[in-house]
Write a structure and sequence with these properties.
The protein is mainly alpha-helical and about 200 residues long. Helix content is about 60%, strand content about 0%. Helix 3 (about 40-50) crosses helix 8 and helix 9 packs antiparallel against helix 10.
Amino acid sequence: MEDRLPPALAEALGCLPDGLRAHLLRTQALARDLAGAWGLDTHKAALAALTHDLCRADPPALLLEEARRLGLPIHPVEEAVPLLLHGPVAAARLRALGITDPEVLDAVRWHSTAHPSLSPVGKVVFLADKVDEGKGVDTDPTLQEVRRLLYRDLDGALLLYLGRQMARLLEATGLLHPATVETWNALLLRRRGGQRTLSGGPTG
């Protein structure tokens, strides 16, 4: 899937279900392209995108068990919805396999919920994952607009996606992860303060 991966990581990725591996490769291709367009580190973006769902196929109960065993912080929302832990657990596994770059690890850790401190590489990976063609983009006008914004206004695309996701969860009386709410607030406050980042068009 990617050159220079630690053998154990390459083996773990190779054991994932076919559909999940296909999603990872599509996400990786888009993340690499986006990172290049915005002048970011394409290798970091590609590596994080390729590995973000390393634990996505694990049963939720096992994710919760592993998170506890690893001593990871577990929010009550994550305890109630253990699938949200597949990013943090994957980041911990990557570290154990020799991947130590903090941007890569944070991108993997927060790819489900986002986070106020997410780097531009993390934002690229988050959004590339969310607009993958396997996630119904063709039938969702909001996701289509998110995809159109990717090369013009990365933070705008992130805001639009987060707003959609929170609205859907609220409509279903679902739980909101605090990191998602905090990211939404941080992005809005930054924009209202005139500190728009990663907008106005890519480099080159």
